[in-house]
Amino acid sequence: MIENIKAALLGVAVGDALGVPVEFKSRIALSNNSLTDMIGFGTHDQKPGTWSDDSSLTFCLAEALTEEFDLQNLGRKFVQWYYEKYWTPRGRVFDIGIATREAIFRLEAGVTPEFAGGTDEDSNGNGSLMRILPLLFYIHQKPVEERYFWTKQASSLTHGHIRSVVSCFYYLEFARHLLLKKEPIEIYHQLQVDIPRFLRTISIADNEMTHFDRLFHSNIYEFQESEIESSGYVLHTLEASIWSLMTTSNYTEAVLKAINLGKDTDTTGAVTGGLAGIYYGFEGIPTHWINSLARKDDILDLAQRMSLK
Question: Which of 63, 66, 108, 140, CA to CA, is 20 to 30 A from 133?
Fold first, then answer.
């Protein structure tokens, strides 16, 4: 399992770091000057290999999973990151989403973790999806009801709306099948049956289910790039990550395709990179990208400690 954990954590961090320098650039701008390699500076004026809040909060969750998993502990780590620079790449928080920041304020004020995240429809940014992948290694052998329960709990620290929860659940179910060495196209069509069927058993409202129609009822891998959005909306990020994985043939192609969609490039890169890392394995991530990462050895140590839990 250590190799899968390394691939997941580094897959997220590399995709994130690739996207940081071009965050907020438009698709047109990137089509004229596509990202092809790890660069630095740009949008956030950070050195090459610097990852953002996506990876920081991913590593906070991973750290919580090296201990007795507890939402209070996870919430404390999020607060530590924001206020004390815990699990930052270079000792500074330089990027954070509005909903995540507000949730951390509530956590710091003592709000119960599962109620800290926003639950209104406008609170459906990609801030829980971007950090959820380590939970896979805690839940992958549990029954589906428990997998959903823990996904809902972990998402709700920052994003409690059902759409964010279901997006995280879909993503982790896809990743879980990748762990089982299934092919993405097989997984995609299996989830079109399995996930709607499960969601009906827990009475998810039909009007929420319709937001997932493109994943549940269409072949998103046949869509043109112009049909894929890449904003900070959770469904845009989820769809873009699945599309990027399914329309490429290696880790490098997948993350670069995701990032060159533009806009929320670090998160689209991170979310795609997590899936691609698991699918193509640690050896599939370019070594020079891994070696350029801030705190590479700390990330590898975290993966090792996760694998021992």
Answer: 108
